[in-house]
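Structure first, sequence second, as always.
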């Protein structure tokens, strides 16, 4: 054997190498001397593996004296799903002496086999960044996972989510005057307390709503399910008043809702006497609502027709000191009809755009341009008159069609006509002219559809308080438990879905109850009836912030009154998301 070619006396089988390494590990722990043959064989293996990658895909070691101890093998099967290691390790070493130093840096991702206890020790703030450690070449590779390798933990900037940045503390969200068709609340805590109320709890909620009585909720509710006051207050928040109310028809929304009414029984469609009876009752209900509004007993109400929506607000709400009404969307014909009835109104969005243009341009420059334009118009008219004279001399004046006064007027009003059915066509009426608007709505024949599935059906009246001829209705609520994916894990979430014509005061009252019940953590997705989003514009010319009129007897929660008194800040948009975290609101519009 010793004379055979290629034979090496220092050659060791893999089993012998592993046996010697285990023996070396035991001898190091007992303080014994290292085997010389093992050291030589290990040194030969290092010299033969210079500039090689010991563990694919590990780093390329150019220096054969650099210690590979403490470098953990990268897990080739590690993925985001089976590995939770958002932190990265920074190994700083020196190529010359193998010690930890600032000469060179390497980044390696932590794999899935890292011990949880080791992670906690590495993440502790007590670790010293300036600590240095020398790794000897004789350290065992088999025991490297049990070694405590000091590393610097650098937080990945991409791991910082926007939600982790604490927003400024806000205890209230802006008032939203648009009507909601659906709201979906989600919370990590259970919302089952809002489902299946007892008969006594529902009765108390309805009674408190009619009498405008409000119970005070504790700030911290340990068990919302067993809190009868909370469940009664939630039933009170779901109440709204409506006229007319037909059990087989959903009378909201009315704009672009032909499919909802199609195929339903409408006996009034071909009965003129029945239509007159419905309009008579509707007129009485509308007059009752306006009387309650003037006396401060009703804060606001909506008139929802098949063409437009009208919002009437009491004095003091929306930052206005007078009763005001918003109509949207409108058409040129509707605006001309209101002018003919003596109703003075303004177009807030058109006026705001006009003011912004005036600020951008100089007033003197505009006057000069206007003067030049007038002179050009006079010259053009004179030229047109001369042109018609020579046509008359030739006898062709009857064959040429001249522009009549109606076509010229339509050209001048082209800009006004282009606003029809758009958010910019919203109309604001204030003061005593709101009474003229009530008379206009009662006597307007085009307020009721003459054809289609809504033929002969009066507009829907919605209010948070009772009025003559109104029917008490309740929003529909349903709770459900779902699983939501958060990163690579799934978290149990509880949802509360509310459907129906959700009024601004109802939305605020529900969120006020969820604040203590869900420990200040919940979110809401809001679905807005799009034609009513423009009702959030600021119509106050005096720029007042509410508190002008005493509305304590209007039947709303005092916190809801305070919110609705503030100036509107959403413009022609509406809220789409509301989030509460640590008792602070954030929202999107």
């Amino acid at each position: 054997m010793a004379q055979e070619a290629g034979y090496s006396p220092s050659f060791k089988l893999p089993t012998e190498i592993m046996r010697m390494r285990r023996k070396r590990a035991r001898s190091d722990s007992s303080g014994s001397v290292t085997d010389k043959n093992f050291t030589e064989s290990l040194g030969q293996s290092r010299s033969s593996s210079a500039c090689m990658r010991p563990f694919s895909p590990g780093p390329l070691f150019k220096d054969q004296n650099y210690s590979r101890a403490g470098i953990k093998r990268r897990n080739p099967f590690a993925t985001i799903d089976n590995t939770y290691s958002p932190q990265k390790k920074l190994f700083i070493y020196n190529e010359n002496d193998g010690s930890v130093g600032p000469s060179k840096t390497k980044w390696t991702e932590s794999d899935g086999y890292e011990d949880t206890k080791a992670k906690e020790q590495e993440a502790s703030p007590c670790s010293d960044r300036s600590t240095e450690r020398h790794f000897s070449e004789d350290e065992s590779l088999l025991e490297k996972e049990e070694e405590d390798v000091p590393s610097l933990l650098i937080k990945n900037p991409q791991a910082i989510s926007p939600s982790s940045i604490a927003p400024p503390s806000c205890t209230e969200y802006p008032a939203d005057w648009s009507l909601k068709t659906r709201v979906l609340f989600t919370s990590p805590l259970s919302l089952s307390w809002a489902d299946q109320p007892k008969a006594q709890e529902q009765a108390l909620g309805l009674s408190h709503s009619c009498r405008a009585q409000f119970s005070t909720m504790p700030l911290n509710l340990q068990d919302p399910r067993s809190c009868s006051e909370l469940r009664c207050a939630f039933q009170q928040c779901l109440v709204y008043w409506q006229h007319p109310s037909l059990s087989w028809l959903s009378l909201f929304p009315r704009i672009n809702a032909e499919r909802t009414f199609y195929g339903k029984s409408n006996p009034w469609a071909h009965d003129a006497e029945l239509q007159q009876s419905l309009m008579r009752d509707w007129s009485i209900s509308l007059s009752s609502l306006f009387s309650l509004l003037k006396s401060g007993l009703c804060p606001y109400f909506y008139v929802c027709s098949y063409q437009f929506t009208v919002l009437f607000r009491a004095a003091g709400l929306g930052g206005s000191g007078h009763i005001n009404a918003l109509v949207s969307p409108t058409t040129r014909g509707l605006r001309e009809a209101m002018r003919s009835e003596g109703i003075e109104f303004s177009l807030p969005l058109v006026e705001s755009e006009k003011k912004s243009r005036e600020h951008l341009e100089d007033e003197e420059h505009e006057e000069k341009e206007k003067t030049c334009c007038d002179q050009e118009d006079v010259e053009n008219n004179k030229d047109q008159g001369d042109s018609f004279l020579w046509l008359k001399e030739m006898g062709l004046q009857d064959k040429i069609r001249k522009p009549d006064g109606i076509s010229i007027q339509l050209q001048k009003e082209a800009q006004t006509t282009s606003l029809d059915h758009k958010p910019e066509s919203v109309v604001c009426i204030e003061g005593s002219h709101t009474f003229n608007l009530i008379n206009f709505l009662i006597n307007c024949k085009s307020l009721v559809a003459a054809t289609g599935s809504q033929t002969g059906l009066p507009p829907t009246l919605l209010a948070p308080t009772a009025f003559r001829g109104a029917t008490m209705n309740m929003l529909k609520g349903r709770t459900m438990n779902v699983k939501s994916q958060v990163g690579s894990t799934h978290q149990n979430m509880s949802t509360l879905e509310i459907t129906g014509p959700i009024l601004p005061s109802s939305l605020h009252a529900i969120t006020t109850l969820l604040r203590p019940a869900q420990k200040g953590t919940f979110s809401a997705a809001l679905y807005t009836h799009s034609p009513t989003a423009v009702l959030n514009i600021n119509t106050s010319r005096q720029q007042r912030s509410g508190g002008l009129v005493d509305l304590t007897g209007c039947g709303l929660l005092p916190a809801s009154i305070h919110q609705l008194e503030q100036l509107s800040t959403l413009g022609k948009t509406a809220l789409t998301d509301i989030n509460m975290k640590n008792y602070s609101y954030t929202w999107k519009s």
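Margin note: The chain is about 30% helix and 15% strand.
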